[in-house]
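Database export, one record per block. Field names are fixed; values are copied verbatim from the stored entry.
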Amino acid sequence: MPTRYPIPEKFTETEIVVINSRFIASAAPVFSNEEAREFINSIKAKYPDATHHVPAYIIGYGNSVSAYCSDDGEPSGSSGRPVLAVLQGSGLGDAAIVVTRYFGGTKLGIGGLVHAYGDAAKAVLEILPRAEKVPTYVVMLAIEYSLFERVRLLLQKWHAITMDEDFGADVTITARFIEEALPKFQTELSELTRGQVQAEVIEYEPETIMPIGSFNE
C-alpha cells in the first residue's frame, strides 16, 4: 500500500432533494473500522428522525482496502452499493460517507434510489477538501528582527505552517514542515544567515493530515 494517498481533509456535508425526499450526504476521514462505525453512529445521532442512514466506507488504499456498505432498510442493492461505488471511484482512501434520507412521500423505485443515493455521494465528494497523511517535523528557530521578513518568505517558499511567533529579544518561530522540505529549508536558511541559524527539530510526527496543495513545490 502506498504511504501517501489522498484522504478527506475534514468532515463535509451537503444535501440534495429528489422528488421531495431529502438526501443529506456526510463524508469524513476514517482510519479503522471502529472509527467508521463511530462516524456512522454520530450521523444517526445527528439526524435521529431520518428514514434511513446508508453508510459506505473504505479503509486503506489501492490493493489493501477493506470496504463496507449497507442498504439500511432500503431495497437490496439500491443504496449502499451505489454510494460505495462512487466512493471507490473517487481515488480516495480512508474515507466514509453516510447518506441520510428523509422520505418525502413518493416512492422512487429501485432505479430512482440508485441514482439518488449515487448523486448524493457525488455531491459531497465534489466539495470535499482533500488531504494526505504525511510525515512532518515541528521546528523552532530564533532570528534577529532584521531577518524576520526574509525568513517569513523562506517559510512560505517551503510551504511551512507557522504555528507560533514570539516577539521577544529575538523573533522565535515555531513551524511545521513536511519531511522532505525541511533539509531544503535548512540549506537556504543557513545561506541567508551565513551559517548562524539552523532550525531545531522539536517534534516528529509520522502521520500528519495536511491539505493537498499546501506542500506542493
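Remark 1: The domain at 6-128 is CATH 3.30.230.30 (Ribosomal Protein S5; domain 2).
Remark 2: The chain has a mean pLDDT of 92.
End of record.
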